[in-house]
């Protein structure tokens, strides 16, 4: 098992290196760089200024030299400074935004699980009943509603008309004056709408997934055996069937780890949330290479770790897999 | 009773501690019509983007200059009519030969930390902006200064090798930095960029990254403490969200879209009672520019025919809902640089057709598109994909030009690609773009024939000896009246040569809570006198303690 883990971790290095080379190359294939943008169509800045800036950012070096310079810095965990005019360290910029995005995504993941699991199970157990059908319709409707539209609707209702919740932002002006619970309450209140909206489509997809897995499992022989033993229906469904139906979910959760840091541009823009989506989108448009690379590298590492974790969790949950890993 | 209880309980649970503070904000009374000027209160402004660097010449984005402009001050400034006037320099003089500018600085001015402002601060700022190590796009215009002198603490002299008339305006945009704080700092990486101290009406109080910026009135401001005690900028990228926040009473000021301005506000009686809207001429214009190196634009008759074929009234209505003005010169109407007696190209499709026929373009095969020597009269208009207004403009132009026998295709390109692949490489037929108008009329870098290298700004490729002569003369003449004559002449010459077709100059739009008083739109916009805006005492909200 330990050997397996070491092997996997070892293999991550060349994979990561490959990912960075490709990302670096693709990003620099896009025409233009930060200096064309910073000085673009500004008659008060000249060619000379642009050359100076290119020099300052090492953009006048050949691509492989730029990559080497970047790699050398990253090897000591220095992701460099943003090219945008704030010149701040990439890690600081990411560090400012990551907690927000993580909080929203983890919260919405929990909401998704909390709602989708029972919905999926009920639909499966009562397959083709009126309840199942109505749940199906509701779920597909939810899936079809555009997130930005729902967001605006909820903002108008709860933010403007009723005045119960803040319309946008992640904390109030007096946030830093509040005590621990006050801060938590303030954050919670600001996060309600974003979390609900971002969980909405996920609930639909996830509950369908649970339903189909559950349907498959219910037909298995061991469920029949459990029933034949005279176990209560609850026990059969929740102890025996659900456990097995949830196995593939582990993989799904593992794969959603990188998604946790991704963030969404549209949704963050609407709610005025300074998250990773906005940061990444603007960095790409601005050709802010250090920030783009920083996010890509962190994303790649998380994806690889997420995969590894999923595999390990799978092994932990399923003895058959565990035996397979040990022998490999 | 039982039915109403749960939501209320949930509501209390959700709202936590902020409810009181917010209800204080939301519950602001409908403003009365009177109210004397008073100090205090807070103005909350919605901005679409976060400032990046509060040293103004280090940042190119408008968010940074909006905030930085309140924190720092300059030697000269523009008044409401966009005329140069005294600021940190109480008076100034230009030598007879135009090569020496002398600024007599105001005495007794202090930075908020108590340190006195002297000519050394000006000298330090100049040295910093021209330092090749400083990562600024704006250094070049200050490198024209060959030598500076600071004969005493309150005099600053700049020497130029050549007379340079726009020099005064460059000193009106250079924010003076405190030498005593920055002398040993690296300007590219200093913390000062996010924690500045300046001579402007407001000082930075707190910056909540990605969320908001809070400024506080500078008691030491040389023109007297501004009335409004605090200005806060909340970063809300989406205009609709900004509008909802305005509606909920959480912000006081935003820039609405033309649709909100023209369609939503007039319909909402409740909003109009609380919110005042302002429209005033902005500082930019949109144009259709030709690549003069390419056929058919080498023929002036074709360019003029196109100018006649475009219906500007329709464009302004369709693109900006009428919230724009027609212009025929590259200056802001209402300022001294804009000539009164200029005749624009009128919408006249018949005239356009005549001119095209005269130029040899005829529709021989009857497919509606003119041709000449077997080549169809067709070209491509490129514009950036993130600008909806330009897309609509391109589509409307396409239709009008089709009516006189010109076939247009429209291509939308991402901004960085647009600039680096098409504009800088001169690889385009025609573009729709905009120029900002600076208060100084000099446009040497845009129109002079020497400014055509890749990446320079005369990318349309205008080569007109008369335009060159006027641009050069404009750089040498300081006297505003004489300068105005030169630039009037330049405008007429440009219109004649028709390297671009002026489409429209859009209005800037603002929606501001009526409790904020003393806002007077002028040619300079509305924010030229923000330190004189005030909130009558009864309308000042309960301030959140920070």
Q: Give the assembly state of these chains.
A: heterodimer
Please give the number of β-strands of chain B.
20
Determine Rg of chain A (CA atoms, Å). 25 Å
Proportion in β-strands of chain A: under 5%
SSE pattern of chain A, N- to C-terminal: HHHHHHHHHHHHHH
Q: What is the arithmetic mean of pLDDT of chain A? A: 84
Largest sheet of chain A: none
Radius of gyration of chain B: 26 Å
Low-confidence stretches of chain A: none
> How many alpha or pi helices of chain B?
18
Q: The biggest beta sheet of chain B, please?
A: 8 strands, mixed
**Helix content bin of chain A:** over 70%
> Biggest interface pair, residues each?
A-B, 69 and 71 residues
Q: Tell me the distance between the termini of chain B.
A: 39 Å
Briefly, what is this?
The complex is a heterodimer of chains A (328) and B (546). Chain A has 328 residues and is mostly helical. Chain A has helices at 2-29, 34-38, 47-56, 63-75, 90-125, 130-144, 147-161, 180-218, 221-228, 233-262, 265-271, 276-286, 289-317, 319-327.
What do these coordinates show?
Chain A: InterPro entries: BPD_transp_1_N (IPR045621), MetI-like (IPR000515), MetI-like_sf (IPR035906). Chain A: Residues 98-310 form the ABC transmembrane type-1 domain. The complex is a heterodimer of chains A (328) and B (546). Chain A is mainly alpha-helical. In chain A, 78% of the residues lie in helices and 0% in strands. Chain A has 14 helices and no strands. Chain A is globular and about 85 Å long. With 546 residues, chain B is α+β, with helices and mostly antiparallel strands. In chain B, strands 11, 12, 13, 14, 17, 18, 19 and 20 form an eight-stranded mixed β-sheet that branches.
